């Protein structure tokens, strides 16, 4: 599903080049739940952004769904983001002025899904996530865990093939973090491919594989026992 071959990412300053990723090779198959770990500054977010077509490598080959990423045009990328890739973030990134219902509905509006169908899709997810009673509330009226639930609902409403999660539990207390991890595990068991970044050793165990990134290099790549 995802294949990175010898990926470099660097930034050039006047007299020096700083490497963020150095020759990264990574293969992710459909149905995997990969956790990327490693110290701060190791390049984890950069790697996730490249995988999610939000950033581009300076060298190497990246194939997304067998498509060479450098051949995917900017316009097409928007389509990819709408239909193939869901993102969730540590800081949730919900729209404060929209209520729960509207936050979840937003991607469908952009995709041009008709009103009736939108309603059914949002209602279905609200139900699955036990959020029906919260649908009229605004993000600042929710706990962090509930906000992340909304973030996940919004990310998966278009039924993406891939869910990318950049420290999804980083702002949550451990109980709420566990709730979110159980949900991610369930989504994975239902078939969604997930790649998450986390610093939490316990939460890494919810996935199927742990990739350790240090100084832009993959130092370890092991299945979860
Ligand atoms: P991680 O997610 O593992 O903490 P990041 O991918 O966020 O690491 O960043 C890796 C390194 O790249 C950091 O040292 C960061 O300062 C650097 N970096 C990120 N973006 C830029 C940029 N636009 N210019 C220069 N350095 C950058
Ligand atoms: P109608 O009155 O036509 O039956 P609704 O009142 O159910 O329609 O909502 C129509 C639109 O209102 C939705 O598509 C949605 O964009 C918006 N809306 C905003 N907040 C909510 C909410 N909490 N529950 C339902 N719809 C909402």
UniProtKB/TrEMBL annotation:
Domain ABC transporter, by residue range, is 2-224
Q: What is the protein name for this chain?
A: ABC transporter ATP-binding protein
Q: What keywords is this UniProt entry annotated with?
A: ATP-binding, Nucleotide-binding, Translocase, Transport
Q: Which GO terms describe its molecular function?
A: ATP binding; ATP hydrolysis activity; transmembrane transporter activity
Task: Please indicate if the UniProt record lists ATP-binding as a keyword.
Answer: yes
* Species per Swiss-Prot/TrEMBL record: Mariniphaga sediminis
Choose one Gene Ontology CC annotation of this protein and give it.
membrane protein complex
Q: Which family does it belong to?
A: Belongs to the ABC transporter superfamily. Macrolide exporter (TC 3.A.1.122) family.
- The answer to whether the entry has keyword Translocase is yes
Q: Which residues form a coiled coil?
A: none
